[in-house]
UniProtKB/TrEMBL annotation:
It comes from the Bacteria. Residues 3-323 form the FAD-binding domain. This is 2-octaprenyl-6-methoxyphenyl hydroxylase. GO terms for molecular function: 2-octaprenyl-6-methoxyphenol hydroxylase activity; FAD binding. The keyword NAD does not apply. It holds the Pfam family FAD_binding_3. Its EC number is 1.14.13.-. Pathway: Cofactor biosynthesis; ubiquinone biosynthesis. Its cofactor is FAD. One of its GO terms (biological process) is ubiquinone biosynthetic process. Belongs to the UbiH/COQ6 family. InterPro entries: FAD-bd (IPR002938), FAD/NAD-bd_sf (IPR036188), UbiH (IPR011295), UbiH/COQ6 (IPR010971), UbiH/COQ6_monooxygenase (IPR051205).
Length: 395
């Protein structure tokens, strides 16, 4: 058994970002951190056509700039200079432009492997201990923290446990943390697509009666596809050969990028809105997808988790109370409550509105898109939501 001050359960993007945000001040305070991760990171970044990607908002760029990481992350970050929002079969569309918002990009698309590599390289081994492959199988509350039992038999005592192991966390149930689950009855089909024409920094949000889809710009003439369909229909699309799949995708998306030439490996993810009913307890914080997982079409899930991570780190570092103090953790959650409520609501309502074929609602959203493009205040509000700045004061 050994002791640490903060144990971060899950060394993925959220957990690693928290460790980087804490480590400089932790070193000065003599805190010891450990990251516990079941999957050992690869030996260096390896480019891949089929790499999964994350859409980082402009607000997330600002966080990584404060952490001193953006110069490296930005080397392989494809900027989103415009977002084109349309409703198939209807005339209205909305266009958001980075230039109109006075920013270099509305967001960026970054391969997960590259983002992870940048984070892992930034970890200070004098402060952050990396335990991998390792998995926490049991959490026992103690008077001054938690005892973590690992799958290989080791035990770790910590003053503060951060549960950041993803949306399928078994530890939440073990601790009796209830999860609100609202299935969408949809699955997201994820793949990378090569296109005839260059995307020129455009991201496309396309809404159809069968469900929403997004095409996000990647390096070269590639896009990251997020195609949401009813679960059985998504399974059918997954089973098509490449030619038949591209033909159906072309019909649904149109020819804004010319012909769709190649599709990479396809992956399918069932979709639901999940929210932990407790995010903090004494000596415990639930973070990332373990706290809330959103529909991917609005691209807000990871960005919200990163904002949570940043505010949590700031709150811990500003506090003079012992680690795990409940009032400190409640102060963090109160600081993020509005952001979480607005972002979750925005993502959920947009998804449900644009996933219906009911004529009155379809006509209403068409008028909404038209109004969004014609009314600058409405467009600016929508753009700030997309950029992850919706709950922050004007610069």
């Amino acid at each position: 058994m050994h002791k640490v001050d903060i144990a971060i359960i899950g060394g993925g993007l959220v957990g690693a970002s928290l460790a980087v945000a804490l480590q400089a001040e932790a070193k000065q305070r003599g805190w010891r951190l450990c990251l516990i991760e079941p999957f050992t990171p690869g030996a260096g970044y390896q480019p891949s056509y089929d790499a999964r990607s994350t859409a980082l908002s402009f607000g997330s760029r600002q966080i990584y700039e404060r952490l001193g990481l953006w110069a490296q992350i930005g080397q392989r970050a494809e900027p989103i200079k415009q977002i084109h929002v349309s409703d198939r079969g209807r005339f209205a569309a909305a266009r958001l432009c980075a230039e109109d918002e006075g920013v270099p990009a509305l967001g960026y698309v970054v391969e997960n492997a590259w983002l992870g590599e940048c984070l892992w390289q930034a970890l200070d081994p004098e402060v952050v201990q990396w335990l991998s492959p390792a998995q926490v199988v049991r959490m026992q509350p103690l008077a001054e923290g938690y005892r973590l039992s690992l799958d290989q038999g080791d035990e770790i005592d910590c003053a503060l446990a951060i549960m950041a192991e993803g949306g399928r966390s078994g530890l939440r149930e073990q601790l009796g943390i209830q999860v609100l689950n609202s299935p969408y009855g949809q699955s997201a089909l994820i793949a990378n697509i090569s296109c005839e024409h260059a995307h020129q920094g455009q991201a496309f949000e396309r809404f159809t009666e069968e469900g929403p889809m997004a095409m996000l710009p990647l390096e070269g003439q590639r896009c990251a596809l997020v195609w949401t369909r009813a679960s059985l229909e998504a399974e059918r699309l997954l089973g098509l050969d490449d030619g038949a799949f591209l033909a159906e995708l072309q019909q649904a998306f149109g020819y804004r990028l010319g012909r769709l030439l190649k599709v990479g490996a396809r992956h399918l993810y069932p979709l639901a809105l999940n929210a932990a009913q407790e995010q903090v307890r004494r000596h415990l914080v639930v973070l990332g997808n373990a706290a809330h997982s959103l529909h991917p079409i609005a691209g807000q899930g990871y960005n919200l988790s990163l904002r949570d991570t940043w505010v949590l780190a700031e709150t811990l570092l500003q506090s003079t109370a012992p680690l795990g103090d409940l009032a400190t953790l409640q102060r963090y959650l109160a600081s993020q409550q509005t952001d979480q409520s607005l972002t979750v609501g925005f993502s959920d309502q947009v998804t449900r509105l644009f996933s219906t074929g009911q004529p009155l609602l379809a006509a209403g959203r068409n008028l909404g898109l038209l109004g969004l493009d014609l009314l600058p205040p409405a467009k600016r509000w929508f753009a700030r939501q997309a950029m992850g700045l919706g709950t922050r004061a004007e610069p």
